[in-house]
Structures are given as structure tokens and as C-alpha cells.
Amino acid sequence: MEKRLDFRDQIAKNKRNSFFLLLGIVIIFILLGYIIAQAISPERIFFILILSIIISISYVLIGYYNSDKIALSSVKAKPAPREKYPLYHDVVEGMCLASGLPKPKLYVMDSEDINAFATGRNPENSAICVTTGAIKKLDRRELEGVIAHEMSHIANYDIRYMTLTTTLVGMLAIFSELFLRSLWFGNRDRDGRQALFLILGIILAIISPIIVYLIQMAISRKREFAADASAVKFTRYPPGLIKALEKIKKETSSKKKEIPKAIAPLFFTNPFGKLDSTHPPIEERIKRLRRM
To answer: Containing H/E element for 108?
Structure first.
């Protein structure tokens, strides 16, 4: 028998993981800065270390306070006014009453696929974005199931951890790419020690974004099951969420997805189908919901 999830434990765990994630990113940036200094210019190690510390702290602060804006702008999401999307607002307000959460900011993104995601750093500074396809194709009970799922991500502080991870993975990838490209313009007459640090820098620049992304995917899969269970708690109606998942399963979209792969773990279902494992299989999610 699976152990029951305690929401207070989940919230505490997510807050703790968020802190260690930010600390880890800072350490990786500083380590990269140190290796770059040793590989390119050992005599300037102090200056490069200070610069890497400033850059890493700046990136962390930007990621923490603007991760929701970055995620929303990356999918070209727009605010959803009540006069244009009354059902959307009514459903969210109903789920706010059921969950005891403040109303998040509401956005829509232009896509015929059925999908949604939540983002932000805490329940007081959160946002939900749904696709125009979800609003068109889902009835009220199905939309309630999807919104309840996203509200549970907000309640459990999944949004802070996953949005931070998503933003920082992208930043780390950019930083690593800049380092690798800079090698073409660096000094090629290096001694053995510099060459060793250069090799270490290349290895770290390549594997660090991959490792963080793999961790991101593994954590995302576990959180989806917990969010489905919480959604049922909020709606008291498992068939709504089940039918929404069944509709998504039947969909076939050949249109190219204009969504950065880094934010795929934020979505209700993987927007790229089965190209990677950011989400558990829809069949498994439906199977678990039927047992509730």
C-alpha cells in the first residue's frame, strides 16, 4: 500500500528542495568560473571568480522573481479577461474556494491542443495559463479537473520548484554554451595544467545542464501523480479529470509546437507527446484515477 501524501510535508519538501536547487546552481556557476579562469587566464582567477559569483547570484534572483514572467512570455501567453473567458474565471474561482487558495492571475496561450500549466513562486504570486483549445474542447467538469490539477501544483509549491528549475536549466545551458563558444577565441598555447582544466570545463559545461534536466524530468513525473490526487480532492469528481485526459489521449496534432522544451515539465501533459519522459503515461494516470 502506498503511503498517503501529507500536503504539509510536500510543501516543506518543495521549499527545502528549492533552496538546495538555488544553492546548487550558484555552486555550479562558481565552479565553472573557477575552471574557466584556470583554463584561460590563471592570473585573473580572482577577477573571474568574483564575476562568476555576481553573475550566478544575479541569475538566481532573476530566476526567483521573474520565472513566471519568463515562462509565460516563452509561450506568448496573454491575460485572460473575464468578459472574454467567463467560464475560465468561474471555474478557477470555484477551485479557489475548494482549495482555500488566492485567485491566481489567468492567462491563455494560442494553441488548439488541450493543455495548461501553473507558474510562480508562491500561491500569492502565481498564474495559470490554459490553451485556447482547452477552453473550446473541454466542458465545465473536465476544465475543473484540469484547473484543480494546476491549483494543486500551486498549493504544494510545485510551481516554485519546477518553474525555478525550468528557468535555471535554460540559464545554465546558455552559460555553458557561451563558455564552449569562447574556446574558439581563447589562447591556444596552454600548458598541461591549463589543458586539464580546459577539459574539465568542457565536460562540466556539457553534462551539468543534462544532469539538472534529468533531475527535473524525474521530479516532474512524481508530482503529476500527486497533483492528480489533489485535483480529485478539490473537485470530488474523478470522471472530470479522467475525461479530460482521455480527450488529450485521442488528440493528434501535426502542427509544430512553438514551445521551448525546457518548460515542457510545467504543462498538464507533455506538449511534445512521447518524445521524452517529463510526464507519466496518460494511461497510467487514468488507471490511478479510476481507483479513487
So the answer is: strand 105-109
CB 43 within 8 Å of CB 138:
no
Question: What is the 8-class DSSP label of residue 29?
Answer: H
Nearest residue to 282 via CA among 114, 90, 96: 114
**The three cell numbers locating residue 72:** 509565460
**Could you tell me if 192 and 201 are in contact, meaning their C-beta atoms sit under 8 angstroms apart?**
no
Q: What three-state secondary structure class fits 8?
A: helix
C-alpha cell belonging to residue 286:
487514468
Give the end-to-end CA distance of the chain in Å, rounded to a whole number.
14
Cβ-based burial of 11 (10 A; exposed 0-12, middle 13-18, buried ≥19): middle
128-to-78, 108, 148, 197, 229 alpha-carbon distances in Å:
11, 8, 11, 44, 19
CA distances from 102 to 99, 208, 250 (A): 9, 36, 33
Residues 104-135: tens digit of each pLDDT: 999 999 999 999 999 988 899 999 999 999 99
Are the C-beta atoms of residues 115 and 247 closer than 8 Å to each other?
Answer: no
> Which is catalytic among the residues 142, 144, 150, 224?
150
Residue ranges per structural domain of the chain:
7-77+157-290
Look up 150 and say whether it is catalytic: yes
C-beta separation of 270 from 282 below 8 A = no
pLDDT one-digit tens code per residue, 24-68: 766 777 777 777 667 666 666 677 667 767 776 777 677 778 878
Q: What single DSSP character describes residue 287? A: H
> What is d(CA 204, CA 208) in angstroms, rounded to the nearest whole number?
6
Q: Name 122's bridge partners.
A: 125
